[in-house]
Design goal:
The chain is an alpha+beta fold. Helices cover 33% and strands 18% of the residues. The protein contains 3 helices and 3 strands, in the order ααβββα.
């Protein structure tokens, strides 16, 4: 598959930035290094490498396929 078959990286970035920019009811953090995720009753605290903790009723976490396939 060529780059033209998949669309360009800049097009994907524009789409992601557009979605994140319109999400007024969500705390969206792109390219954030997550150190810990804990699921408990009714909340999901997510600890970031910089020391911040974000707590929400739900969390969506996306990883690149190479990270998922590495098994680490």
């Amino acid at each position: 598959m060529t780059t033209s078959d998949r669309g360009s990286t800049s097009d994907t970035r524009e789409l992601i930035d557009g979605i994140a920019g319109q999400a007024t009811l969500a705390d969206i953090r792109l390219n954030s290094h997550v150190t810990r995720v804990v699921q408990s009753d009714g909340e999901v605290p997510v600890e970031l490498a910089g020391g911040d903790t974000i707590t929400a009723p739900t969390a969506v976490i996306a990883l690149p396929m190479n990270v998922l396939n590495s098994g680490t």
